[in-house]
Design brief:
Hypothetical Protein Ychn, Chain: A; alpha/beta; 104 residues
Length: 104
Amino acid sequence: MQVVFHIDELNKWPLLLSNVKNFLAVEAEAKVEVVAYAEAVTYYVGDEELPEEMIGKVDFVACGNALRAWEIETELLPEHVRVVPSGVVEIIHKQAEGYYYIRP
């Protein structure tokens, strides 16, 4: 199973991470990608850290357009966060590849 989680609101990160954790508890072998854009990309450089148990299991992605809009340098991102040119386009590509789409 392949799932792409979409997040664009900063305050939804706790809910999203809970959803991912619960999903992986049932579907441990699934491919999971989290695509953050709009204000949600600021989480990657904030005080909160991504849950350690998800690093390496979940592909965390940041929208390059949103990073520029929020004036976030890619060098400031954690090493496990991948940057794509457009978060929306990334989600569309994942859906075309057969990923299920989840937006908490």
